UniProtKB/TrEMBL annotation:
EC number, as in UniProt: 3.1.3.7
Protein name stated in the entry: 3'(2'),5'-bisphosphate nucleotidase
Reaction(s) catalysed (UniProt annotation): adenosine 2',5'-bisphosphate + H2O = AMP + phosphate; adenosine 3',5'-bisphosphate + H2O = AMP + phosphate; 3'-phosphoadenylyl sulfate + H2O = adenosine 5'-phosphosulfate + phosphate
Lineage: Eukaryota, Fungi, Dikarya, Basidiomycota, Agaricomycotina
CDD domains associated with the record: PAP_phosphatase (cd01517)
Keywords noted in UniProt: Hydrolase, Magnesium, Metal-binding
Amino acid sequence: MSYAAEKQVAIAAVRRACILTSSVFNNLVKNETLTKEDASPVTVGDFAAQAVVNTILGRAFPNDPIVGEEDAADLRGDAATALRTRIVELANATLTAKLEAGEKEEWGLGPSGQQTTEQLLNIIDKGKHEGKAERMWTLDPIDGTKGFLRGEQYAVCLSLIVKTEGRTRVQLGVIGCPNLPSDLSNPSSPRGGIFVAVRGEGAYELPLHDPFSAPGRRLSIPKLTTDNLNLLESVEKAHSKLSFNEVVAKELGITKPPTRMDSQAKYAALARGDGGVYLRMPTGTGYREKIWDHAPGSLLVEEAGGKVTDSRGEDLRFDLGRDLGENYGVIVAGEGVHSSVLDAVKRALAKEKQGQ
Ligand SMILES: Nc1ncnc2c1ncn2[C@@H]1O[C@H](COP(=O)(O)O)[C@@H](O)[C@H]1OP(=O)(O)O
Ligand SMILES: [Mg+2]
Ligand SMILES: [Mg+2]
Ligand SMILES: [Mg+2]
């Protein structure tokens, strides 16, 4: 299936959300960030971007469930009045902006797209789905919120997961990276891209502000060997075990230093040929990886000729609910090097066990 309609809607939704998040960053004030129960930050940008994307998906595909990271519980009380007002203002400004090429008014966009506060809170809450369905969207409105707050990498991440022939797989992935330089080795190169993949149709990078103007650049992971690649990894030490990555890099004979980057921009960079291996091993706190943090990125890399598994070499599970199940870590690499990385991870895990 080509998912042409879904792809068009998803690209338009991610583009609008990226415009919103970029404008929030430029105007973010101190009291516009909350700390969630798990101690992670969430900003007015996360909530407003989820409201915008869910509005568009809700209009275009009203029967599809959405598994979104955020919910509106913290926005409903009197204590949240200022935050709520700002989110409503941001979401409405984004929804009512003039229609661009490829967009439709019936998606809730354009001058008539104004929503009430209650409508916007309810549409944010449409993302509370349990994550088990024959067909569902996943949304991370700002992936890498800590990177976003630092003015570094973050991504707006949307995917469509469908059960076909007994298998629940990602069929469409769209990732907006407003701050990703077009040339990673040159930080002053132009920034921003939308990365798109449809299963069986390849992976593409499109211009962020004009994604419907041309077919975009087809992405293909170059054939790297362990002599000329380096690791992509999180900036945040609490998100993955960076000391383990050092051991794996040694096992593989990798000499180049790792590239640290927040968010699923790592999947996008790898699909484009930057880095070569994205390794995300658990820190041992029991944190379970979320489906919205891997669904679009994993398809993007697969469609660019790469492979994504856990540390046992098994496929990631998108059929278990909002998370991927027990955290065995995630290994992402080009086809040619994935098996060497998997072996090195297994050796490093065995050594770690012996050392205990
Ligand atoms: N304790 C944690 N362990 C692993 N990942 C986490 C943890 N807390 C939040 N995350 C999520 O990890 C991802 C960022 O990873 P990275 O450090 O590689 O950029 C984000 O999706 C972030 O959520 P969020 O979407 O809220 O930013
Ligand atoms: Mg978060
Ligand atoms: Mg997020
Ligand atoms: Mg995330």
